[in-house]
From TrEMBL:
The species this protein was found in: Desulfomicrobium baculatum (strain DSM 4028 / VKM B-1378 / X) (Desulfovibrio baculatus)
Protein name per the record: histidine kinase
Source species, domain of life: Bacteria
Gene3D superfamilies named among the record's database cross-references: 1.10.287.130, Histidine kinase-like ATPase, C-terminal domain
The entry's keywords: ATP-binding, Kinase, Membrane, Nucleotide-binding, Phosphoprotein, Transferase, Transmembrane, Transmembrane helix, Two-component regulatory system
Catalytic activity: ATP + protein L-histidine = ADP + protein N-phospho-L-histidine
Pfam families (UniProt xref): HATPase_c
SMART domains, alphabetized: HATPase_c, HisKA
InterPro entries reported in the protein's UniProt record: HATPase_C_sf (IPR036890), HATPase_dom (IPR003594), His_kinase_dom (IPR005467), HisK_dim/P_dom (IPR003661), HisK_dim/P_sf (IPR036097), Sig_transdc_His_kin-like_C (IPR004358)
Ranges of residues in domain Histidine kinase: 325-554
Spans through the membrane: 12-37, 267-289
Enzyme Commission numbers on file: 2.7.13.3
GO molecular function, one term: ATP binding
Length: 558
């Protein structure tokens, strides 16, 4: 099975934390930005299309209006001479500031009457395509041509009746009039221009007149008349509309920098959002990775502590087995000593019978008997100690039996009473004379009581410099079916933050090497197996009270 080091886990976790939120955000922002860019681009092209169509309608309406004004002016012309035509010219010039001159031309191209600037005299009126179109269609709007003195003119012709004859009323307009029309409906940053079928700029919003401005009319534009598109070579967007008169084309151009400025700003905002989100994700990943690394380090430290505690627990178990072995080996010489002590007692009885009335000899025998009795007491004491050690360390299946805690507790105290006295701790025992029988395993109950007494002595040792130590051990009938065993001390007590951890395995407040943290956890499990309760109350700095609640055996079953 592959083992992962802390650094490997840290690196993998960092990469996962970085990519898990970043990739979906990147995909979402990328998709959203792409869709928004396309929408903004299409929206800009649609606006440009509407702008070109609107201005085309404006120019068409202007030309229609001018043709209508020519027709109305002809109705006011009584005589087709220059004087009458001058009146028509002045009337039209009031409304149409771009009007240059007006002339009546016969079908053969002869100028019948002329009104306009005196420098022209009408000699510049040359028959052309406009004359044929007007005679054939009734009206004609020509492209911009170079007129007298090289000035560009836009010719508008209308077929009219002069008595029984058909003549053509020809009017010329300054192309600048179209430029003035563009300024009204022109959007910001937009170039508007009129283009004839030959690709020449008739008039432009930038003042272009009768030019071949390739910056405005690229071949790509002429190839895609009537559509809106973006040209990557010129970095501009184009839109065009075919007009009703003259086959003219009204084009609109806008540089992409201004057309898509909002989209660029949005993309910049998305980029900044992505960058900010990436920084936040990076910092969060670093923080969480550091936190996880800290937790892993803490886990490793706890694992090392656990390994050390298990090692000490194993050593203690070995020590317990050794102690049980020592106790078993000590029992053998104790039995021999006890046999010899019994034999000496028999000899002393024989010596006493032989002494008769000899008082001095009887005194010696009595002294020897006192010494033998002392030896017997110590042999019995050693036997009880080894018996307790063997009982405490006995392995095997738990064997519950009825025991009277009133007599069992004093037996347990004999194992630890000497240690309590040497620790200069006062022991207060309160055991009622009545029988309090419980059905438990004596060895396990002994283990619980010894552990609680040892913990009480350790707690008192921490406050021995403050006040004299005292341990209280009491048992009583909690109720008709419950026996309470209580061990009380006036030691250091347990803090609030530690109370929830008291029965946790391997938790200990003792310094390293002084405890395994298993004692209370094991005791808690033992008491629960007895169908009892092990709990405590404690006040920090004042002491603790641990108590056992065990099921009481009814007197009828004792």
């Amino acid at each position: 099975m592959r083992q992962y080091t802390r650094q490997t886990i840290k690196r993998n976790f960092f990469v996962a934390m970085l990519l898990a939120p970043f990739i979906p955000v990147l995909l979402a922002l990328g998709t959203g930005g792409y869709l928004f860019w396309n929408h903004a681009q299409q929206s800009g092209l649609d606006k440009l299309t509407l702008l070109s169509a609107y201005n085309a309608r404006v120019v068409d309406r202007f030309l229609d209006d001018f043709l209508g004004d020519l027709a109305m002016a002809r109705a006011q012309l009584e005589y087709p001479d220059s004087a009458g035509l001058r009146v028509v010219f002045e009337t039209l010039a009031v409304k149409h500031k771009g009007l240059v001159d007006v002339a009546l031309v016969s079908p053969k191209g002869m100028v019948l009457a002329y009104a306009g600037p005196s420098v022209y005299k009408g000699t510049h009126v040359v028959p052309g395509r406009w004359l044929d179109e007007a005679l054939e269609r009734g009206s004609s709007i020509s492209s911009v041509v170079s007129g007298q003195m090289g000035l560009p003119l836009c010719i508008v012709a209308l077929r009219v009746n002069a008595g029984d004859e058909i003549v053509v009323m020809r009017a010329s307009l300054d192309p600048a009039v179209f430029t003035s029309l563009f300024t009204v409906g022109r959007g910001e940053g937009v170039d508007l221009f009129l283009v004839n079928p030959d690709g020449e700029v008739i008039a432009g919003s930038g003042g272009q007149v009768l030019t071949r401005d390739r910056a405005l009319v690229e071949h790509v534009f002429m190839d895609r008349v009537g559509t809106a598109f973006r040209d990557s070579l010129s970095d501009a967007a184009y839109s065009s509309t075919v007009m009703s008169h003259g086959g003219w084309i009204l084009g609109a151009r806008k540089h992409c920098g201004t057309l898509f400025s909002a989209a660029d700003s949005t993309l910049l905002f998305l980029g900044m959002s992505l960058l900010s989100g990436g920084i936040i994700v990076l910092l969060s990943s670093l923080y969480l990775t550091g936190y996880v690394e800290k937790m892993l380090l803490q886990r490793d430290e706890e694992r090392e502590k656990l390994r050390e505690q298990l090692y000490r627990a194993g050593r203690l178990a070995e020590l317990g087995e050794m102690a049980a072995g020592f106790a078993h080996e000590i029992n053998n010489p104790l039995q021999i000593m006890k046999s010899d002590q019994a034999y000496i007692e028999m000899l002393l009885q024989d010596f006493r019978a032989r002494a008769g009335e000899d008082a001095e000899f009887l005194g010696d025998v009595d002294e020897m008997a006192a010494s033998v009795n002392q030896i017997k007491l110590q042999i019995d004491r050693c036997a009880r100690i080894t018996h307790s050690i063997l009982s405490f360390g006995r392995a095997g299946k738990s064997e519950a039996q009825n025991i009277d805690v009133s007599t069992f507790i004093p037996e347990v105290l004999t194992m630890i009473q000497k240690k309590i006295q040497l620790s200069n701790i006062a022991l207060r025992v309160d055991i009622p004379p009545t029988r309090l029988v419980v059905h438990v395993d004596p060895a396990r109950l002994q283990q619980v009581l010894l552990n609680l007494l040892n913990n009480a002595m350790y707690a008192i040792s921490e406050t021995a410099h403050v006040r004299p130590g005292e341990i209280g051990l009491a048992c009583s009938a909690e109720s008709a079916d419950t026996v309470r065993i209580e061990i009380r001390d006036n030691g250091a007590g347990i803090g609030e933050e530690q109370k929830t951890l008291v029965f946790t395995p391997f938790y200990t407040t003792k310094p390293a090497g002084s405890g395994t943290g298993l004692g209370l956890s094991v005791c808690h499990g033992i008491v629960e197996s007895m169908k009892g309760v092990l709990d405590f109350t404690s006040v920090k700095g004042q002491g603790s009270t641990f108590y056992l609640l065990l099921p009481r055996v009814p007197s009828s079953l004792e």
